[in-house]
């Protein structure tokens, strides 16, 4: 009987079919009241789909969802929120023109008679925001907030609706280290207050840090639920992927670096953004850029790529000065960029996988002015095998893939291009451990073909594991350039955080 009371959510034989894909297949398990429960699985395993069913985003499915021993079926996401089931996404969508408070109470505004009671909105919202220790106010415009702050607004909204369950789907993917730490503190406090948490992340350290129990899904099927403290990282990976995978970024081969500089950047500046950035990149080299959020790494590479306008500085490709004014021009010159924000910059929404991957090199698939669909499909199939794209279907709309699989399409798009210099901005964001390892191998393959890579990542082990040299940036400036001969995390972090004095020293 006690067991009955403990379960807050019970999934019973939940199945969901999208055209051509069985995203969930008879999934049954339960979540206990007040626990932090991780949902784990490879890209496309069905984690987000299951959450979308719980949260009323997907309303057509088979099977039952029980909340406190009653079958529930929410009409839409707002209906779920109103019933105490809230969701915090990686990228929270708020209405930017409205105030924070208006976003929190949206659709359920406190009224005075017939009229919306603005004073009470802000009073209520500010009370919650101060509990969450936010340093912005209910009266502020939502559009002015950072990603981390927007997530706090989503949590505030959940609390306004007296949430019993809050789920987090890859919440830390765009957060800084300190934002992540404060999010974890808040999540632990929510748990202390009896709120049940569902948590999805590909960063396995986080699972061990905050989760009590975990459930693994593989290809839409339930595999196992267990206590996190009972398993090692290796066991966890094996349960998810079904085989042993190294969770570390490692280079199998080094020393493919040529003599010539393929890229030289001198004194690159955008006034008030970053200043005086100089470096070179050799043929066959991986150069890592590391810095904390706000260090402007992304702006630097976007500027080289012609996506932002420089104020000063010169760029040389193979020793020749170039003036890159647009991304199209950059592509013509042999550059490629896997952008940080794949949803808006990475692929075309109404294109299928084969078309999206072919985009950077259409002439390769064109004969006598006609595009060969067969060639495009074959090209896509190569990458489907190489980095395990799921569903393994060239004709599937990229927009309908799971988050991590979309990232794989964006990466493949550039791998299949003839770009000789690739800029990878957070290339493995949202990618599962198995696919990460595959992406690292593909990167090495590119070096063997004489290509060069610049990698920007906030995952320090990734930068350390893959780069030949590392440039550390802080607040728009290059702090130091380090040769990666057995560098340790602390060596790099101290420069990124500005705790060392020897800033001009080049090792
Ligand atoms: N709107 C949709 N239309 C068609 N297929 C979809 C849709 N949403 C998800 N799918 C498919 O359902 C399957 C499960 O996707 P889901 O997003 O649940 O995976 P996930 O476990 O969250 O993966 P990730 O770790 O990459 O976020 C995938 O094969 C995906 O392509
Ligand atoms: Mg997902």
Automatic annotation (TrEMBL):
What keywords are assigned to this protein? ATP-binding, Nucleotide-binding, Repeat, Transport
SMART domains named among the record's database cross-references: AAA
InterPro entries in alphabetical order: AAA+_ATPase, ABC_carbohydrate_import_ATPase, ABC_transporter-like_ATP-bd, ABC_transporter-like_CS, P-loop_NTPase
The answer to whether the entry has keyword Kinase is no
Molecular function, one GO term: ATP binding
Q: Report the residue ranges that make up the ABC transporter domain in this protein.
A: 9-244, 257-500
Q: List the Pfam families.
A: ABC_tran
The identity of this protein, by name, is: Sugar ABC transporter ATP-binding protein
């Amino acid at each position: 009987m006690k067991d009955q009371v403990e379960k807050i959510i019970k999934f019973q034989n939940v199945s969901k079919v999208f055209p051509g894909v069985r995203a969930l297949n008879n999934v049954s398990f339960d979540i206990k009241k007040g626990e932090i429960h991780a949902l784990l699985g490879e890209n496309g395993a069905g984690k987000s789909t299951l959450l979308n069913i719980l949260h009323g985003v997907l309303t057509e499915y088979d099977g039952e969802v029980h909340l406190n021993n009653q079958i529930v079926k929410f009409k839409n996401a707002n209906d779920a929120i109103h019933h105490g089931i809230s969701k915090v996404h990686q990228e929270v969508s708020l209405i930017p023109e409205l105030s924070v408070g208006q976003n929190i109470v949206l659709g359920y505004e406190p009224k005075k008679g017939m009229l919306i009671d603005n004073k009470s909105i802000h009073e209520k919202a500010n009370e919650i925001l101060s509990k969450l220790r936010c340093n912005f106010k209910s009266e502020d415009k939502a559009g002015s907030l950072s990603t981390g702050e927007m997530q706090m607004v989503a949590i505030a909204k959940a609390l306004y609706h007296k949430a019993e369950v809050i789920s987090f789907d890859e919440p830390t993917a765009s957060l800084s280290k300190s934002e992540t730490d404060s999010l974890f503190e808040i999540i632990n406090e929510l748990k202390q207050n009896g709120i049940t948490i569902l948590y999805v992340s590909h960063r396995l350290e986080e699972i061990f840090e905050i989760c009590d129990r975990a459930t693994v899904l593989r290809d839409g099927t339930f595999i196992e639920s267990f206590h996190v403290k009972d398993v090692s990282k290796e066991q966890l990976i094996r349960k998810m992927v079904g085989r042993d995978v190294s969770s570390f970024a490692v280079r199998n081969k080094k020393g493919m670096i040529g003599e010539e500089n393929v890229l030289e950047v001198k004194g690159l500046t955008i006034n008030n953004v970053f200043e005086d950035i100089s470096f070179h990149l050799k043929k066959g080299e991986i150069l890592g850029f590391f810095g904390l959020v706000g260090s402007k790494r992304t702006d630097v590479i976007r500027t080289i790529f012609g996506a932002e306008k420089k104020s000063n500085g010169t760029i040389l490709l193979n020793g020749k000065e170039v003036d890159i004014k647009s991304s199209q021009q950059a592509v013509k010159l042999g550059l490629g960029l896997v952008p940080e924000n794949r949803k808006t910059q990475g692929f075309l929404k109404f294109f299928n996988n084969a078309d999206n991957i072919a985009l950077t090199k259409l002439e390769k698939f064109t004969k006598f002015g006609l595009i060969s669909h067969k060639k495009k499909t074959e090209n896509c199939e190569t990458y489907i095998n190489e980095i395990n794209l799921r569903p393994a279907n060239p004709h599937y709309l990229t927009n309908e893939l799971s988050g991590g699989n979309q990232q794989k399409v964006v990466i493949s798009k550039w791998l299949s291009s003839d770009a000789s210099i690739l800029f990878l901005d957070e290339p493995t964001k949202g990618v599962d451990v198995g696919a990460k390892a595959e992406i690292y191998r593909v990167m090495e393959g590119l070096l063997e073909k004489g290509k060069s890579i610049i990698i920007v990542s906030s995952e320090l082990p990734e930068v350390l594991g893959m780069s030949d040299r590392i440039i550390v940036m802080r607040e728009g400036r290059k702090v130091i350039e380090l040769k990666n001969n057995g560098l340790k995390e602390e060596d790099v972090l101290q420069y990124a955080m500005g705790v060392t004095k020897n800033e001009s020293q080049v090792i």
